[in-house]
Amino acid sequence: MINPAGHVGRWTLNQLAVGARVSVLMVETMAWMVVAPLRGKGLRFKAAVESFVEFGVRSLPIVGMICFLVGVIIALQSSYTLEKWGANRFIATLVAVSALREMAPLMTAILITGRSGSAITAEIGTMKVGEEIDALEVMGLNPIKYLVVPKFMAMLLAVPCVTVVAMFIMIFGGFFASVLVVGVDPTIYIEMTTQSLVEKDLVTGLVKSIFFGVAICWVGVYRGLQVEGGAEGVGKQTTSSVVTSIFLIIIVDLFFTVLFYFV
Amino acid sequence: MMMGNNQPIIVVEDLVVRYGDRTVLDGVSFEVRQGEVFVILGGSGSGKTTLLRNLVGLMRPASGRILIKGEDFTAMSEDDRIELRKKMGMSFQGSALLQSLSLADNVALPLREHTALEESTIDIMTRIKLELVGLGGFENYLPSELSGGMKKRAGIARAMAMDPEFIFYDEPSAGLDPIVAAGIDDLIRKMQETFKLTSVVVTHEMESVKLIADSVCMLKGGRAVGVGTLDELERSDHPYVQQFFARRADDESEDSAYAKALTGLE
């Protein structure tokens, strides 16, 4: 750009326009999810259940495996320092607290972004390119109601559910490594784990994970609807969907970490 | 060939559509009478697809009105638009079938979402519609398993699902070989004759226009350069209409002007 001020101005206007489009999408989604059913316009529960199975149940194997390994890693890394103080029993505390408050929600969200956030963008993008979105509209079927709301409901539920499973598996991974590799007494490990956890840790993790789900779904849908042109457009937006989504997840994570740090 | 009475059922008044600063349609007006096949004819970039997207409400015009059965479609509430859309069917250029659903589910979709019919009734209706377009027995096929012509037919079956009063076709014969394309032309005519459907067809194929059109609106550069029956248009003295009917290329002079615009060279 020749004129830097003009460049900044255009960039700002562009971002504002994106913000406006995302807001419209959010308002419409909420309207079709919350207000329309009250006026007897119905929800597509069957589609929501199918999406829940896809986003949640089918992601369990990969999330489970990754979270088990992350649990092992956290345990071994903490032992590296704690051993010097003869405090290996505190591995349990570290694993439990970081799993619940941070690592399980984060890993779950990132994996679901890669699996399903990208899939949402690709699906909606391909439908847009193939005029399928237009076809829905001409048939009098609102694309938000038909496509977005079921996915949104599913995501809102799937991410926290998978996160809870991930929390348990990550703690088990830590237990596994501590007992077999480091040589911590299993009873002490379990005792330390139960002692160190409070309700607030679980709440922190779950609140985060709900907002992660919101971010994944909205970014996925928004990017999908932004697709222009053909297959290349789908590819571009899918990449962009994953990057934006992970970026937003980290921002949301930071926000809630700071919030819960002071609250 | 004219069917039904001669009441205008779709009236387009002075339609102006813009993309940003570019004017795509510039004051287009015409009337479609009940039960006729109305063809919107024009070359690439003439604005014909944009015109169709406005007629079905996928776009809103900058100014002008579209009256459908006397009601202003451009100024209606969302609920009223949905009601009116239940009376419309549209066949898309690329068929736009939902790839994730079987043919039967595609056709049944509007019925399931808009009516309280029993599943068994929907099943029968779906079969009838597919039979109608010559796709009986293909209920369980996915769109990806069909040829281009079959997809087009399936798209028409879906457009017919709600027993519409209007049907819109976007380039029905684009990308099809002449024999299959002729089959689609026959189907358009058959639908119109059997169900007294008001049909609006967007195309650039002169051959199919001669077969199916009752009335024609010819677009060039976003303006209607000729509106009337095929005979009236053929007698038109507008040079572009003449050129289109004779299938002549643009003059040398226009070509060099275009080349100049492209290259910026004298």
Task: Describe, in plain words, how this protein is organized in 3D.
- The complex is a heterodimer of chains A (263) and B (266).
- Chain A has helices at residues 4-38, 45-55, 60-82, 91-129, 132-138, 143-182, 186-196, 199-226, 231-262.
- Chain A is an all-alpha fold.
- Chain A starts with a helix and ends with a helix.
- Chain A has one domain (42-262).
- Chain B has 266 residues and is α/β, with parallel strands linked by helices.
- Chain B has a domain at 1-87 and 166-172 and 198-266: Rossmann fold, CATH 3.40.50.300.
- Chain B has ten helices and ten strands.
- Chain B has helices spanning 48-55, 78-85, 103-114, 119-132, 148-159, 178-195, 206-212, 230-234, 239-246, 252-263; strands spanning 8-19, 22-33, 37-42, 63-68, 71-72, 88-91, 166-170, 198-203, 215-220, 223-229.
- In chain B, strands 6-7-8-3-9-10 form a six-stranded mixed β-sheet, with helices on both faces.
- In chain B, a hairpin with a 2-residue loop joins strand 9 and strand 10.
- The radius of gyration of chain B is 19 Å and the shape is globular.
- The model of chain B has no long low-confidence stretch (mean pLDDT 86).
- Classes of the chains: A mainly alpha (263), B alpha/beta (266).
